[in-house]
Design brief:
Number of strands: 7
Radius of gyration: 17 Å
Length: 128
């Protein structure tokens, strides 16, 4: 009986343990790439998502230039690379957290300039 009460108390105190994540890996990648490049999350198209890697693309409206990116989702960071550099970015880091079940915060930080992050919030409607 005591074990059951402890279990119930843990659930009441820590609802995050049982809540499903509101944002999936593809949406995290869309948010990261759109924050880094200054456009909407809807403009970033998901091409594939498998084995922890999300592939996305973006078509720049001003000149029609096509860009491809890959994201690897980690517990608090979104690692990314593009088709030109070909390696995971080490100079521009992207961190994320959910502020509540409906709001995602993305922090894009240039290494060495941690006091000046680019911060953008997203809701689920930003991906539809």
């Amino acid at each position: 009986m005591r074990a059951m009460l402890v279990f119930i108390a843990m659930i009441l105190i820590s609802p995050v343990l049982i809540a499903a994540p509101a944002f999936n890996d593809a949406q995290l990648c869309q948010a990261a790439i759109s924050t880094n490049n200054g456009h909407s999350a809807r403009a970033v198209k998901v091409l594939s998502s498998q084995e922890g890697i999300v592939e996305v693309s973006y078509l720049r409206p001003s000149d029609g230039k096509h860009f491809k990116f890959w994201c690897k989702i980690e517990p608090t960071e979104i690692r990314w690379k593009d088709e030109y550099i070909g390696r995971w970015s080490q100079n521009l880091r992207v961190y994320y957290k959910t502020l509540d079940e409906k709001t995602l915060e993305i922090r894009s930080v240039i290494v060495g300039e941690e006091n000046y992050p680019d911060i953008k919030n997203f809701s689920l409607k930003d991906f539809k």
